[in-house]
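Just wondering, does anyone understand these tokens?
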Amino acid sequence: MHLSAADEYFTHQTSLPHAMVATSDPSWRERYWVSFQDTRGGDTVLTLGMGKYPNQDVFEAFVCLSSNGIQRNLRLSRTLLPDDSMGVGSFSCTVVEPLRELRFRLEENESGVGFDITFDATMEPLLEGRFFQVSRARVTYDAIRYVQHGRARGTLHTPEGTIELTPDRWWAERDHSWGTRPLPRAEGMPPGTRPEWKMLLFAPLQLPDFAVHIYLQESEPGQPVHLSAGIVPPVGSGKEFPAIVGVEHDLQWVRDAAAPTLAGGRIALLLHGGDRIDLQIRALEGRAHLRGGGYEGWNGWMQGQWRGDSTAEHDEWDLSDTASFYRYAKAGSDHLVEVTHDGATGYGVIEYMVLPGYGRYEEALPPRRKQ
């Protein structure tokens, strides 16, 4: 067993040191996801993430910068122990003030992307309900997360130049999750099972006076297999909102796109007590494709897979390459959207997936690919 600085504090939840978790399931992980968007330009999304897998002895991070039709990706991994810092290689995170301010840095590296960006919370965090799911008599999901909305400030370095991030135009959302979630399939594992859901929405959206988060999975239209949603007030306001008891959606899609591509639409939040909030959605150009961070695996790089003491790889995608676009987009993306409600305008991202057999949004499905 391994002791770390966290073991000095009265924060233990199991009869184990902090380096260990209460289950030996190799899929247990703890992760950050953060997305920054240029809401004025509308075409740039920077998404990054990091995570630790105690039972895999892995700490990893990724960076995906999508701008002007090009996406640059960086994936980093190291052995977890004995280093208990929140960083890997050129990437690091500092919690300046819990639930209020986080600083992310990426030093010089071969991808050509670097940054020093601070996330400042504008809204209180929203704790989702516990997500518990069983498949073939095995627990596949037993996890929880909180989501938070904010702004960004700092600098972003690209091969084209340096961009100053100011909170008036750079908006941000993040989550922090922990628990058991499926690892990507590897050789020798049982066959994968199709998910119960056939349509997925993950939508942290913020307006001037409140923010919402929706995580919805439906097996068919109007039949959720998972719904976790809520409304949060600005930091320190003390305002309270009624619970969201249902979500309705009427979305429009770009026809004949190489992968599902949102154009806009409407999302309605049904509130306890009978009221509703209608949100109008307009998709903008900016869209960071998560497969660049290893979601569902990319060219042999699988999230949570042990890759040795220090590994890094990077690549660059031409998003105008329609022949390759489905490969880039098939694991979902952080798509920048404008949201309006009662004359107020805000922004956020929506991650979405539509699978064959859902029974709606057939126009979202890409044309059949030639064999």
